[in-house]
Design a protein that fits this description.
Layout (H helix, E strand, L loop, with lengths): L18 H13 L3 H8 L3 H8 L9 H11 L3 H7 L8 H5 L1 H11 L10 H8 L3 H6 L18 H5 L1
Length: 159
């Protein structure tokens, strides 16, 4: 029976050059799992995945495969997907909302997000909601109830 040695043992390699490979290899070492066992449990081809970890191939592009890997290795699936250079499907709304995207891009770039809301939102906050103003309803010590404005995006209301 062929003895499996740890991936990268006894040879110089660039396994840690890619964050995806580093995360996978680090988890494999911590859990004592071999490449063949990982591939068997996650449904990946060992030959292909060895090349991925060796930097000769790109990480899998299939989100389901990345999620299976994360589950087997007890990793956060979103983190592993990002390490593979992909955007998790649950973050898709970020690509549709420019305000949310610009805030995230600002944080990622190391800039502090602006502390004040955009001018349109400041104006909207300065006006009392129509229903609360008309009815005069307001609980003591609490701000007047607010409703989402028609045509506004969720990010404008939340930010």
């Amino acid at each position: 029976m062929k003895e499996e040695r740890p991936l990268g043992a006894g040879r110089r390699s660039s396994y840690a050059a890619h964050p995806f490979a580093f995360e996978i290899l680090d988890s494999m070492r911590r859990q004592g799992i071999s490449l063949r066992e990982l591939c068997r449990l996650s449904g990946l081809d060992p030959s292909f995945f060895s090349k991925v970890l060796g930097g000769k191939r790109n990480p899998p592009s299939d989100e389901d495969a990345l999620r299976r890997l994360a589950r087997v290795l007890s990793l956060d699936a979103r983190w592993l997907i990002v390490c593979a250079g992909r955007i998790p499907s649950e973050w898709e709304s970020m690509s549709r909302d420019k305000l949310v995207f610009s805030r995230v891009a600002s944080v990622v770039a190391g800039n502090q997000p602006t502390q004040s809301p955009p001018p349109r939102l400041q104006e909207a906050r300065a006006r009392p909601p129509a229903r609360a103003a008309a009815s005069g309803l307001k609980a003591p010590g609490l701000p007047a109830p607010q409703r989402f404005r028609a045509g506004s995006s969720l990010s404008e209301e939340l930010l």
